Amino acid sequence: MSGARTGASGVIDQIEESVIALLLGLMTVVTFANVIARFVFNSNILWALELTVFMFAWLVLLGASYAVKKHAHLGVDAILNMLRPGPRRVLALISVALCLIFSLLMLKGAYDYWAVFADLPPTSGRWFPTGFDTTARSQSFYEVQDVPMVGFLAWLEPLINYDEEYEKLPKVVPYLVLPVSMLLLTFRFAQVAGQILRGETDRMVASHEVEDDLDEMRAKHEEND
Hints:
This protein has helices at residues 7-39, 48-69, 78-82, 85-115, 156-160, 177-197, 208-224, and strands spanning 123-124, 131-132, 143-148, 168-170. The protein is mostly helical. The protein has one domain. α1 runs antiparallel to α2 (48-69), α2 packs parallel to α6 (177-197) and α4 runs antiparallel to α6 (177-197). The chain is globular, with a radius of gyration of 22 Å. It starts with 6 loop residues before the first helix and ends with a helix.
């Protein structure tokens, strides 16, 4: 299991876990600060609610791929447990193939939605990208409602907003999580597909008892190697 934390995959794992932990901490701090401001100082942090919503969205979307890695999504494995290893593996491959198709479709849609805010062309094609739509109208000037612009993101103004200043945070920043999370989700499903093909697991979502069996099987496999 130690090899899972090395190389590019290990770096992605650490970044993913660190970002999720940071989001949880920041959500708690911002919410607590707003409560204190409201009930102690009879004031209000105007941008606190919107920022918390954005952070929660990041948490959920990034957490989806993290849950795939941890086999933590809800699933029913009663039928799988009744099958022999061969048919069980076939069903697992079918399941992960469908999930990969789903995540790729979501990745296209997420990129297309975000691209116009980044002054980039979205892809053409209804289901799968067939090129880039260079006629799409840029929406890089769109801003969020309450969260103010922060100074360290000022480089976005000459890059995508034609030197116009942002008063509020541009939507390209919080919406970046859409393509990033879908890319991570696709990557995690591909990892699961590789695990199934290598015989390291026989399902996408495992119950706790099955996870213990899989860990024991991996340990025996490592000992034999």
